[in-house]
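Example record for the data management plan.
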Amino acid sequence: MAERSTPVRRIGLVEDHESVALGLAAMLADQADLELVCAAPTVDALLAQHDDLDLAILDLRLSDGSSPKCNVEQLRAAGLETLVFTGAENAFFVRSAARAGVLGVVRKSEPAAVVVDAIRIAASGGQVASTEWAAAIDGDPELGDVGLSPRQLEVLELYASGEKLDRVARLTGLAPQTVNDYLQRIRAKYAEAGRPAPTKTDLYKRAIEDGWLPIPEREDARRRA
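Corresponding structural encoding:
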């Protein structure tokens, strides 16, 4: 009886650093069931090259300034599930991608065997469990969890990003006093977790730490982009 051949999963990589693309290609070179078909610096470029891929591997921070959430949504709209391959240095980016429905998150610093195994699982449609994945869903395990409700989180994101209390009330459909009550509860939860946030600036810092707001870019990084 003839042996059934192993299906080859076709992989596309969205990555604008050539060294990373070359490294991933080397990792997959001797894998009979995985083939890196193409690498592109943007999602648009990847989709223009190939429409018969089994999995997209996505770097979160791309030089075109695109958001992880939009990139994942664009890939999934094209019928491509996505695995995030990242340095995971920005909790906001990781969480944003997780919310958009990626199959998992794997660090670039992981051993090659771990990366290959994650790609194999994702290419077959499986979820890739990892510390980064858990952190994206549940928050950074090294930070005290404050257990914010979805409504409290909505208020925190708006207020900490610079909106005034009255405008937060208008945007959320809540009464100003209700927004103020939410903010008091949020501050109390942070204090209970050992991460006090008595001022608006402190709330902004906590929101960045927890990945609810993006890390502000340095001026020199913006000039290079």
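Summary line stored alongside the record: The CA atoms of residues 11 and 36 lie 5 Å apart.
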